From TrEMBL:
Pfam families: VanZ
InterPro entries: VanZ-like
Keywords per UniProt: Membrane, Transmembrane, Transmembrane helix
Coiled-coil annotated spans: none
Residue stretches of biased makeup (Low complexity): 13-22
Region feature Disordered, mapped onto this chain: 1-37
Transmembrane segment boundaries: 52-69, 84-101, 108-127, 139-160
VanZ-like domain: residues covered: 38-153
PANTHER family named in the record: DOMAIN PROTEIN, PUTATIVE (AFU_ORTHOLOGUE AFUA_3G10980)-RELATED
Listed name of the protein: VanZ-like domain-containing protein
Amino acid sequence: MHPERPKSPLMPPASSATAPARAPAPSPSATPRNRPSSWLADVAQGETWRQVWRLLCVITVVGVSWLAFTPNPPPAADLGWDKANHFTAFGTLAFLGMQCLRPRAGRAWWVLAAMLAFGVLIELVQSQIPGRDADAQDVLADMMGAVMGLAVHAVAMWGVRRFTR
C-alpha cells in the first residue's frame, strides 16, 4: 500500500482521477476582434466600414466626373491612352460600388448597370464640351474596366473569406 500524501491546499489530491487542466485565458491580442483576419473581414465586409467605402466611392465619382468633364484634364492624370483611362476609372468604380452595397444576389448587375449609365452620361456630356468628343469605344472600355473591377472584387472577397476562416 502506498502511504497517503498529506492534504494541503496547494497540493492536488492523490486520487487517480485528476481534474482537467484549465486552458489559459486568451491574451487581449488574441481575442477575435484584434486578430488580423477579423480586422480584415471587418474592413472588407463590415457594416461600419461600408460608410468609408461609400465615401471613397463618392470621392472617386466626383474625381472621374471632373476629369471627364474638364476641357483640358491635367497630364498627370493621363495614363497615356484614353481607353486605359476609362478602363482604370471604371474598374475602380465597380470595385468600390461592390463594396458600397450589402452582399446580396444581383448586386453585380446593379453595379454594371450603374457603370453603363455613367459611361453613357459621360460620353453624352463630352459631346457638348469644346475640345472633347463622344466615342462609343470609350463606353466599351468603361464596361471592360467595370467587369475587371467586379472580377478583382470577387477574387479579393474570396481571399478575405479564405484568410478569415
